[in-house]
Amino acid sequence: MTSSQRVDSDATDTEIVPAPTTGAILTWRDGQLYRNGQPHRILSGSMQYFRVHPDQWEDRLRRLVALGMNTVDTYVAWNFHERREGEVSFDGWRDIARYIELAGEVGLDVFLRPSPYICAEWSNGGLPHWLTGRARALRTTDPVYLNAVDTWWDQLIPRIEPLQAKHGGPIVAIQVENEYGSFGSDAGYMQHLRDGLRSRGITELLTTADGTMSDMQLNGAVEGAMPTFTFGSGVDRALALKAPEVPFMCSEMWGGWFDHWGENHHVRSADSMMGTINEILEIGGSFSLYMAHGGTNFGYWNGANHDRVIQPTVTSYDYHAPIGEDGTLNDRFDALRARLQELHAEPLPEPPANPRLQAAAVAKFAPAASLMQVIEAAPAEHASQLPLTFEEIGAEDGFVAYEATVAYAVDSVLSIDGLHDRATVLLDGAPLGVLERDGALSLELPESADAARLTILVESLGRINYGALTGEGKGIMHAVRIGRRIVHGFTHRVLGDEAPVAIAAAEATASGAATATLTVAEPLDAWLAFPGGVKGSVWLNGFMLGRYWEIGPSHTLYAPAPLWRAGDNEIVVFDANGLPATVEIRETPDFGPTEEFIGS
């Protein structure tokens, strides 16, 4: 049988209320998890299909099996599938059903965490920008938000329902929402999601996942779902909160951590990671290692945090996982595999050989377009007296160029009210400087002008994925001023995630777009570096790999083998502040200076 629960602030007052049997393959009673009636524990690793090239899904899943896992968990990133409202894709990289089927074929169960909100250091926590631009109360029963969720689930759930264990598929558990107890308190919202899963045919085990505070467990719970925990350490705290009837499970055991630009690269030693995992195993608990294989925030899909200042996440999502970003296996893999082997009656399969890497190489960049040429290649649209936000003009991420004609006297100062997040300011095509959301927000204008062309190129550094600011807008949120006076009369140009058009600038420029050709014998994984570049976006054969930034910590971008071709390969960079002279293929990544970190 399955059970539901109510978690009070005092664990000793927790009441377990039996719920109707649903026919799930995983059930629980008396503190024990069962699979088909036999005692069971989930040994899971997190690996997300949207962060791994689809041609590498099977390889990485087989590494998970060799690690000793019996389950893979993955979020479903709503905004990855519905970038524009009503245009839903489940093809190619977005074929979530194929990913789930592959997991089953290699022998893994699937623990599915199907949105609407996922956090995951992913842009907007997985919520589409077009929804958060208009919904006032996210993750509540607000009709605008909830109607969009229902419409999305009407597309998603019918694709995953046939893949449940009851139909012979690999899905054995489904998470209702993600760490809701640290966000809100709308019990009706959680009930609506639970009922929405059940009414659409989901009968397998439902779970929730929250941190190790009583308030989080209280507000994240919903009757009919098994509560679980998220932590990097603190098994004792979780045990104190767990009701006796509920099996112990950590749905996210943080074996490493993610990185923000301008910080150190976070690592966690094998001994530290194994210390927490051993504590869980010694009490008969289940866990999912977050992350077992981290992958990459390709394109502009990285999220951001906000703790008094914006904290954008880097392109790499290596997470110091046992299976590295390029599939290499490390000492953490060896330590965990040895421990999990003790829980398997048969020898674990040998992992696939580490992927081969491109040999070191260097190619020079040739300027392709000046910064203004790149900007002017995009159409000027959306005329408005005041600057519009990204959401108001339908820009998902990347850059928007705001343009207006201005007149001003000597000793004038330009400022921006509500900059999200970074702006390169140009006057008559000449760069004036860079403004930062949490730094300088004003610039002195040169001399005076009767009709100067003002261009403000605003970059979204990453949509916030956690906390009360999730879903906030990007761009210029309020106004541009010269002195006290508001600037009026703007047009807008959207520079998205497509490679800039090569215009073949006649002269070398300090900023803009540049191209290089790397010739390789065969498609293999590679690490790319861009010495001398300031802050840029990179495309390999038309696919956007992500961003580099001189502030680090990481100074390489992962370029997976399926994106390469034998022979010539085109690298395009767009850097508004300082183009690199060369691109280098490196045989190992450079994640920058390290810092031991344990999430709690």
UniProtKB/TrEMBL annotation:
Enzyme class, UniProt record, top EC level: hydrolase
Residue ranges of coiled coil: none
Reactions catalysed, as given in the entry: Hydrolysis of terminal non-reducing beta-D-galactose residues in beta-D-galactosides
InterPro entries listed in its UniProt record: B-gal_1-like (IPR026283), BetaGal1-like_ABD1 (IPR048912), BetaGal_gal-bd (IPR048913), Galactose-bd-like_sf (IPR008979), GH (IPR017853), Gly_Hdrlase_35_cat (IPR031330), Glyco_hydro_35_CS (IPR019801), Glycoside_Hdrlase_35 (IPR001944)
Superkingdom in the source lineage: Bacteria
Domain Beta-galactosidase 1-like first all-beta, first and last residues per copy: 387-492
Residues annotated as domain Beta-galactosidase galactose-binding: 516-569
EC number per UniProt: 3.2.1.23
Molecular function in Gene Ontology: beta-galactosidase activity
GO biological process: carbohydrate metabolic process
Active site: E179, E252
Pfam families: BetaGal_ABD_1 (PF21317), BetaGal_gal-bd (PF21467), Glyco_hydro_35 (PF01301)
Residue ranges annotated for the Glycoside hydrolase 35 catalytic domain, each copy included: 32-341
Keywords: Glycosidase, Hydrolase
Similarity comment: family membership: Belongs to the glycosyl hydrolase 35 family.
Identification of the protein by name: Beta-galactosidase
UniProt organism field: Leucobacter exalbidus
